Amino acid sequence: MIAFLRAALTAALVVLPPAVGFAADKPFKRDDLADAAIKLEAQIKSEAGRPAKPAAALRREADAAFQRNDFRSGMQILGQIVAVAPDDSANWLRLAKTVLQIRPGNDRERSLLLERAATAAYIAYQRSSDAGEEADSLVVIARSYVDRSVWRPAP
Prior knowledge:
Helix content is about 75%, strand content about 0%. It is mainly alpha-helical. The model is unreliable at about 5-25 (pLDDT under 50).
């Protein structure tokens, strides 16, 4: 048994160095989320228009909305923040978490919000360089799949 484990470890070490070159790419990839990410980013940019305020002022407004438990306004403000700073993965993750906190009015809106949360979290995951933030993004994606009862196995 020990000889088998040693052989397996040796084989893994021989295969690992060539695979390290591919490790720079993110391991979780979904074509449907990637397509949805392009559409969501364009939609948010068109909805936000040209924000007149800087990102810091918008963050303060979003925090004030969250203190009032006004998640819909907070989501709109975070959309403006994302339009101003689209490469900041923390903003995308915050947007995804906020969308999950909104109480939908009907089943259709519920489905749209869950899809939007998963897509924003996927964008955060793809743009993040922090392992903790990547993990948080994947948790939001998983939660949205659970809430939508998407049970198909991972590819």
